[in-house]
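Shipment paperwork, digital attachment
Item: protein structure file
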Amino acid sequence: MIFYFGVERGPGNLVFGGKVGERWVNVRRIKLDRPHAQIRAKIIPLDEDHVSIDLGSGSAISYRTEIPLDRARTLSSFGEWKVGQQKTANDSEHYRPPLRSLDGLPVLGPLAAADLIYDFGMHIGSDTEFYLKKGFRVVAVEANPVLADAAAFRFRNWVNIGRLVILNIGVGSSAGTFAFYVNKTHSEWSSFNREIASRGHPVDTKEVHTIPPKQMFAAFGSPYFVKIDIEGHDHLVIDAAIELPTPPTYISFENGDIALFETLAKAGYDAFKLINQRTVPEIAQASPALEGLTIDYEFPFGSSGPFGEETPGCWKETGAMRNFLHGHFERRALLTGPDVDWWDLHARRRR
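Attachment content:
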């Protein structure tokens, strides 16, 4: 017997997760007659593929699990709900520090999840907050330990109910501990590359554990969308993501580097948008939503903004975007003054 908790995904829609022994199990979305903010239910395994769910109303319903029990992962990194425990999640005692290593976690494997987003380069958490409010689960990766700790406390409610995992781990080509340079003036420029991090400003040096991104995907699954903004190591995430058996439907990365664009094009991504990030605060929310939940949200300056089908403008096919990118970089090369614009390239994979 195990005990699950459910998280609301719109009125009356609950997604359940919980524990069978030491193993994590997801159960399909359940439609209820009335909305619930949170609910816990008693779960009894029936066989390898089914469980019985008692929602406390006296009815027990059988649902097929989304993943086989023998490939389920432990709940340790997502927070555990125990019988009779009252989780306020607003109290500091329920704060969970970010993970700084994946040692000891089981390998889930490259299982695809339609509600999972990776935020590589969480920074102060503006994008992570948006994805969570849209109803997605998030694995947020941030090498700066100060920012990761601050986000873990700020988002402790999401961490405690299992919707968010924060990794204070750097993205590297190999596992190890390396110098991470924190820009004292512009923290968003911080990088494992000192030149990229400093850009004429002073930096602090932190020792940060790194792992290849494929290990993160193996631990937490293959996502629907990957946002990448990690100042110099974007290519490592893209290379790992496109090798997944089910690559992400959407990927975005900063600056629209032509070599990375070509990598995505060769991997089957065939629709693209280049979006000026300075204009993100001007973007209104789609209603009804085209991705996740319909919410009232204003993008703060510096955030990445919407993703997937909610990004503004029309998708360009590969050849058109290739020509556009070459012209874009030629125009930027002619600029003589400070350039206040920065851009994200969004890519969609054929379905």
